[in-house]
Design a protein that fits this description.
Elements lengths: L1 H24 L5 H7 L4 E5 L2 E4 L5 E9 L4 E3 L12 E3 L7 E6 L4 E5 L2 E9 L2 E9 L3 E11 L1 E2 L8 E11 L1
Parallel strand pairs: 2-12
Antiparallel strand pairs: 1-3, 3-9, 4-8, 4-11, 5-10, 6-9, 7-8, 10-12
Length: 169
């Protein structure tokens, strides 16, 4: 009888191991976590192309989406040690970022510390940027810098490319 219970236990452990291995190797298993590890916590939605009057500061609304189950710190987090969300355009792009207006963050409390409120973005949010472009076509690789977190942990800070074709008329 002892031999049978050891065999049954070994078979159960073996099947459990196979199930765990199969789940971890399944292309559909935990796709959200895998995509977050590869940088998809925040997705740039649009615009891909804008036409602006050459030489004049022009508002452009930049739309982003945060993956479900995640949040990022707002542009003005409540604690100095938290990494703010920021948008930038490289000086070498030919297009200048005059300023950017960020949405207000939403108060968020972690389950482990409900008394502490964080200022975060979740879901979709819009940054209102004012840009100036000279006449011509400018392929801009702007950047959104952020730190994504879930209710248990934060990922390392990250920057995603925000590609915009800016046409100055």
């Amino acid at each position: 009888m002892i031999a049978r219970s050891h065999v049954a236990g070994a078979v159960c452990l073996g099947l459990l191991g196979l199930a765990i291995t199969a789940k971890s190797q399944s292309p559909l298993a935990d796709t959200l976590s895998r995509s977050i590890l590869h940088g998809a916590a925040v997705e740039y939605l649009f615009p891909e192309q804008v036409t602006v009057p050459a030489g004049k500061p022009t508002p452009v609304a930049l739309h982003f989406r945060i993956a479900p189950g995640f949040h990022i710190n707002s542009h003005k987090p409540k604690e100095d040690y938290l990494i703010p969300t920021s948008f930038s355009i490289p000086e070498t792009s030919g297009v200048a970022l005059k300023d950017a207006t960020y949405p207000e963050g939403t108060d968020f409390a972690l389950p482990l510390d409900p008394g502490t409120k964080l200022s975060v973005y979740t879901g979709e949010f819009v940054i209102q940027a004012r840009i100036v472009a000279p006449r011509g076509n400018h392929l801009v690789e702007a950047s959104l810098h952020y730190q994504a977190c879930d209710k248990n942990a934060c990922m390392p800070p990250k920057a995603i490319t925000v590609p915009i074709n800016v046409i100055g008329n």
